Amino acid sequence: MLINKLIKELKDYRLVGTAARKEITNLEYDSRRVTPQTLFCCIVGEKEDGHKYAAQAAQKGATALLVNRELELEGDVLQIIVEDTRAAMAVIAAEFYDHPSRKMTMIGVTGTNGKTSITYMVDAIARQAGKKTGIIGTITNRILDEDVHTERTTPESVDLQKLLARMVEAGVQWAIMEASSHSLELKRVHGITFDVGIFTNLTQDHLDFHKDFEHYREAKKKLFYNSKIAIINGDSNDGPYMAKDLTSPIFTYGLEENRDYSASHENLAANGTSYLFSTPVGSTIININIPGQFSVYNSLAAASACMALGIDIQTVKAGLKNLEHVKGRAESIYNEEKGYSVMIDYAHTPDGLENILSSVRGFVKGRLITAFGCGGDRDKTKRPIMGAAACKYSDFVIVTSDNPRTEAPSDIIKDILPGVVNAGCEYVVIENRREAIKYAIGLAQKDDIIVLAGKGHETYQEINGVKYDFDEKAIAEDFMKEKNSRN
């Protein structure tokens, strides 16, 4: 594509150089992937400034550079100078891939907890309605039935637009994506208009990046400035903030009767949940195979969005019923021989941990044993809060490691322990997570439920920058079999 066509939707820019009519065949923000005829985008990140690699990109044959200031460079390389290279990169990427988001129904989900589950629930309903779907999110990116590896919840704009273009090519009609606070703040979804934006809830998370809760909340709200319809959790304290000043239609969901879409007469059990779903066009009983009141909220959000897009209530009901589980979200392994269960959940925030444990507390017949840790290089202030949450609902707590990243696991555990100690529950510290899982399963008796919280769908453990194989579900199953064979 010619550069002058590529930049036609940029509002304010200045060109330095003479290559405006040259052809671009590649977009990159990583200088290691630059080839001839590349437009290299110089992005300023938390740790690196892409402008440092501009000369290297030019030497490798880049035809043009997207920069926020004029650089002194050798050779005939065009510099496209803009104020905000992230926003400009998103605009250029959309043009380069021929605006794929405009060719599909776009559903975006934001909030602290529930994003992944909601995307899979929307997907199940859409498929029930005969739609061809794609998912972008934490567990995986998926095009129809093909899984595509993901590095982050929401890809950088260049990668995102490329992925959306692949979806269009494959015939996807509905693209359902998690819109993380990072992606909204860093303009990865800049320029995309969502047919529906969904807000789940807000609790403390990512304050290492956003610095305070107000900035975190405002980052989340950015989704709704670019959504044609807003689906808002009316029971959330932050729902009114998300809805304020929006010009698009707003629909609320929740447990209160005055919500547009509401749930009542809930039946929460170990093997799933049911409730009366009330809508502006009638009511029906919804059955889902995922336990917990949080699953009521998640399914309400998905159902509300789909009905706002024209899917009928019976198709919504059938789609939710057919979803067996979401990987790493309240995913249960039952030991028939011994009569206890291991539940794997991604809960890694205070609210997420409280949600899963309070739900299990409601139906566990024996003891609730919880093993959890906190991620390294992330918000440290939530660690003792999570310790207190674990103790509030558990009969026994095992404090262990999660993804320590570059922090010492023992230091992370020290940050957790004040919350545990002050709560006064029975606990043990086992730093090695594999050994912690083995210990928990060794304790399990009939009717007990073990909750392994924090890693969920992840199949690795990140230690000092290295990702080691760590499939928590497989590890738990192995230890369960080992225990069965001993007795």
Tell me briefly what this model is.
The protein is an alpha/beta fold and 487 residues long. It has helices spanning 3-6, 54-59, 85-96, 115-128, 157-170, 181-185, 207-210, 213-225, 239-243, 293-308, 313-322, 350-363, 383-393, 409-423, 433-443, 472-486; strands at residues 14-16, 26-28, 38-41, 64-67, 78-81, 105-110, 133-136, 141-143, 146-148, 174-178, 196-199, 230-233, 250-254, 261-269, 272-279, 282-288, 331-335, 340-345, 368-372, 396-399, 427-429, 449-453, 460-463, 466-469.
Structure description:
The protein has 487 residues and is of the alpha/beta class. It folds into 3 domains: 3-96, MurE/MurF, N-terminal domain (Udp-n-acetylmuramoylalanyl-d-glutamate--2,6- Diaminopimelate Ligase, Chain: A, domain 1, 3-Layer(aba) Sandwich); 100-322, Mur-like, catalytic domain (UDP-N-acetylmuramoyl-L-alanine:D-glutamate ligase), CATH 3.40.1190; 331-486, Alpha-Beta Complex (Protein-Tyrosine Phosphatase, Chain A). Helix content is 35%, strand content 23%. It has 16 helices and 24 strands. The strands form 4 sheets. An 11-stranded mixed beta sheet has the order 9-8-7-10-6-11-12-13-14-15-16, with helices on both faces. β20 (396-399), α14 and β21 form a beta-alpha-beta unit. The mean pLDDT is 93.
As a whole number of angstroms, the C-alpha radius of gyration is 24 Å
Give the overall average pLDDT.
93
Q: What does the overall shape look like?
A: globular
What's the CATH first level of the largest domain? Answer: Alpha Beta
* Strand line-up across the major sheet: 9-8-7-10-6-11-12-13-14-15-16
At CATH level 3, the topology of the largest domain is UDP-N-acetylmuramoyl-L-alanine:D-glutamate ligase
Number of separate strands: 24
What do we call the CATH homologous superfamily of the largest domain? Mur-like, catalytic domain
Tally of separate domains: 3
How would a textbook summarize the main sheet? Answer: 11 strands, mixed
Q: Could you say what the CATH architecture of the largest domain is?
A: 3-Layer(aba) Sandwich
Sheet/helix structural class: alpha/beta
**Beta-sheet strand percentage?**
15-25%
Low-confidence stretches: none
